[in-house]
Design a protein that fits this description.
By secondary structure, the chain is mainly beta. The protein is built from four helices and 31 strands. The strands form five sheets. It has a 16-stranded mixed beta sheet that branches. Strands 22, 25, 26, 27, 28, 29, 30 and 31 form an eight-stranded antiparallel beta sheet that branches. The longest helix has 21 residues. It is globular, with a radius of gyration of 23 Å.
């Protein structure tokens, strides 16, 4: 299949600069030269060709490689939805170098996600362990995995769900992180700096240095070592008993924290992982979660609904864009949620609606309204669509509100709406053939 610029690289996020190297599953290691028009096919080939410290831009798709960074300290960034899907005997990225970094890349199925020294991971989603890791994690989701290493690690504005770390020498800095669903952390307390911690999932069992926090309102914001920042044990959340974990203007974390608010209350980047949706006050109907933590419809079920918890944005503000994390993925092609051919994926297979009100109590009386959403069907190394579908959603117009709730409807093979759509598509195709004849 010929690569046509600029379809595969959006151009809105990464501008072409001297030294950038481009990768696309539609590219070629033989005829490619690493440019946007002639990208390499594999990340490893891009690393081989890159200069020390170069930026490597990876196009949307699924990659199954084990990448050796050769200690070059390259910056690997995703231009779209990039899934690293490997085997239990391989490491996704190793030997990246002390200045190496990953951004907006999802990693699952590997024996290890990243092994060794690295500068930082930003905006990533990890379902594979971090082994012998040292560096910084920012705005990164760690889901049902482990964090292990031999040197201190910094976590800033991260979400940890079902995570454990076996050694207290690993985490030396935990700042503005959200913990949920059986997370067990051992912290290097003497060098710990300020953080705020929220356990918002009912039924979660959170442990920090052996101390359990088992209620939805269990919150701690400081260990004794934090007092140099003027942060006390009370973070002064607005209404924690009502699920409002935004910070009171008088909170010491308001000035000490970098994000100026609490995890889970960002108008520009609301995020729900699968565990939060199920245990955080949301509901599902006729939808299951498979072994990869992807939502799917069981065989024989045509329609399913996922209703998220009500989210309090924390203040009245204009909202235009809401983007779900990369782990908000739906499976599987074999069950008819999406076609194996990305060109035939039906736009009605997933619909997203939102309702909003000034108060959480007012949500129940609000009407769901349709949302515009962008979908990306990922591909395997044979260029076949693998049925996984990730997407972002945005409102149709600016709203000024405090509380929002999303409803996602999945329509599988046999659903009357999709059958009608398929029949209509066939009629249109027949009309086009008649016109051509």
């Amino acid at each position: 299949m010929a690569f046509i610029y600029p379809i595969h690289f959006s151009g809105t996020r990464w501008r072409v600069t001297d030294g950038d190297v481009y990768v696309s599953y539609l590219g070629s290691n033989l005829s490619g030269n690493g440019s946007p028009k002639k990208p390499y096919k594999t990340i490893q080939q891009a690393v081989n060709a890159a200069l020390t410290g170069a930026r490597i831009v990876i196009g949307t798709g699924t990659y199954t490689e084990a990448v050796n960074g050769q200690g070059k300290g390259c910056r690997l960034v995703a231009d779209g939805t990039v899934l690293m899907s490997g085997t239990a005997s391989a490491t996704a990225f190793m030997n990246l170098g002390a200045n190496g970094s990953l951004q907006d890349i999802s990693i699952s199925g590997y024996q290890a996600a990243v092994n060794g020294v690295v500068k930082e991971l930003v905006g990533c989603s990890l379902r594979s362990p971090l082994t012998a890791f040292t560096g910084t994690l920012k705005q990164t989701l760690l889901l049902n995995t482990t964090l292990a290493g031999s040197a201190p690690v910094r976590l800033i504005n991260c979400t940890l769900v079902g995570v454990s770390n076996p050694s207290a020498t690993v985490i030396a800095h935990l700042e503005s992180c959200h913990l949920g669903n059986t997370t067990n952390l051992q912290l290097n307390t003497p060098t710990l700096t300020y953080f705020d911690y929220c356990n918002q999932e009912a039924g979660s069992v959170i442990q920090i240095n052996g101390t359990s926090y088992n209620t939805p309102t269990a919150v701690t914001a400081a260990f004794p070592a934090f007092q140099q920042f003027g942060v006390g044990v009370d973070p002064k959340f607005n209404r924690p008993t009502a699920g409002d974990y935004t910070l009171d203007p008088a909170s010491a974390l308001k000035t000490a924290g970098r994000r100026k608010t609490a995890i889970g209350a960002f108008a520009e980047a609301i995020s729900w992982g699968t565990s939060q949706i199920l245990s955080g006050g949301g509901s599902i109907s006729a939808v299951t979660i498979n072994a990869s933590n992807f939502f799917e419809l069981p065989v024989g079920i045509h329609t399913g609904i996922i209703e998220t918890p009500v989210v309090d944005l924390g203040s009245v503000r204009p909202v235009r864009t809401l983007r779900l994390y990369a782990d908000q993925v739906f499976d599987e092609a074999t069950l008819g949620i999406v076609s194996t051919d990305p060109n035939l994926a039906l736009p009605g297979a997933i619909t997203v609606e939102m309702r909003y009100a000034d108060t959480a109590a007012g949500i129940a009386g609000a009407t769901y309204q349709p949302m515009i959403w962008d979908k990306v069907v990922s591909h395997d190394y044979k260029l076949a669509g693998n049925g996984q579908l990730s997407f972002g959603v945005r409102t149709m117009s600016y709203i000024t509100t405090r509380c929002i709730q999303l409803r996602i409807t999945l329509r599988g093979a046999g659903d009357p709406v999709l059958l009608a759509q398929e029949n209509n598509d066939l009629l249109l195709q027949e009309d086009e053939r008649q016109i051509q004849v």
